[in-house]
Amino acid sequence: MSEFLSVAVVILNWNGKKYLEQFLPFLQQSTYPSLSLVVADNGSTDDSIPFLEQHYPAVHILSSKVNEGYARGYNTALAQVKADIFILLNSDVEVTPGWIEPIIKLFEQDRTIAAAQPKIMTWANRNLFEYAGGAGGFIDRYGYPFCRGRIFDFCEEDIGQYDDNIPIFWASGAALCIRSYVFFEMGGFDPYFFAHQEEIDMCWRLQLAGYRVFACPESVVYHVGGGTLPKGNSLKVFLNFRNNLIMLYKNYFLLEKIWKIPYRIFLDVVSAYKNLFIGQSSYFKAVVKAHLAFATWVLFHRKESIFPRKKLAKPNTIYNGNIVWKHFIHGIKTFNEIIQTKK
Fold it and tell me: What is the C-alpha to C-alpha distance for residues 89 and 223, in angstroms, rounded to an integer?
């Protein structure tokens, strides 16, 4: 190979000095020959920037005065970065030796692959797949996200069952590798999302345009998770429910949109009342607020979002079944069991 694809690892940082201090040493040991490291600071109020300037002068720093969230924050940062491949890496991720090379090999072998992710393991328990991506993301026909290795809150132990490179529906935003020209061709992340599920929306849009997304388990990283918004946080619940409905509205074909979105709202309401009955009133309020925000978006803010430019065909990586039914009613916990039962 005479020339290497240039790679920029871009970390979007918000008050994450402790993670930069902990995990940048691992990142600096990356062996890929055409690599640049960028930290895009998203209006931090801690001493992240002075720390980087003192201890990591080779890291390029991009500074924003305000917290623009994951979506707009990365849009702003990546517009200032030049590379063939962007790797969007959370600050709370520990990388491993040789983690970049297998993913670049995938990109070199197939031009239709526009995005990919490594195998993402739990930092605190390294035998478990991590919630935010596992060994590759999928959705069911009603828009519920799940992963190889993680169904809702159940994370599997890694025994090599997902060590093959396969097409997936979405690559995790914790370690999203994407061709730069495709990122810009898609218009970047939808800034209306602020944070959560913008990477799923991006992957859906690029598949509608004819590109593919892959998992590359030969590459392994370890993710702490919940570094910015912990699991169960009411803002996190609100953003996940609101953004998921917006994503479905944007990317479903018309006939799907007419019946699937009302059905999804019904399932959301069931989930909200279930949590209310067990004493989680903040969860209930967040779901109600998300539904009202979705209705407001449909009526007044659709033009602020990025819709798919092309809808060539429905992606073949959508699970044509109801994962809620399979997991909560039938008690199926693993990805392989879900897929084998089909519907």
Answer: 10
Contact by Cβ (8 Å): 150, 336 = no
For the stretch 103-113, pLDDT in tens is 999 999 999 99
How many residues are present in the chain?
343
How far, in Å, CA of 270 to CA of 264, rounded? Answer: 10
- Please report the pLDDT score of residue 340 as a whole number: 82
CA 323 to the chain's CA centroid: 19
Burial class of residue 331, CB neighbours in 10 A (0-12, 13-18, 19+): exposed
CA atoms of 80 and 94, how far apart (whole Å): 25
Q: Using an 8 Å Cβ cutoff, are 73 and 67 in contact?
A: yes
Determine contact, residues 330/343, Cβ cutoff 8 Å: no
Alpha-helical segments (H) within the chain: 17-28, 48-55, 69-78, 101-109, 180-185, 198-208, 234-251, 254-277, 281-296, 323-324, 335-340
Instruction: List, as one string, the DSSP characters of 26-52.
Output: HHHT---SSEEEEEEEES--SSHHHHH
* Tokens of residue 199, six digits: 């990477």
Residue ranges of the chain whose pLDDT lies below 50: 1-2
b vs e for 163-189, b when ≥16 Cβ sit within 10 Å of the residue's Cβ? Answer: eebeebbbbbbbbbbbbbebbeebbbb
Report in angstroms the alpha-carbon separations of 295 from 167, 247, 289, 298. Answer: 33, 13, 10, 5
Round to whole Å and give the CA distance between 115 and 103. 9
Q: For 302-325, write each residue's pLDDT tens digit.
A: 999 999 988 888 899 999 999 999
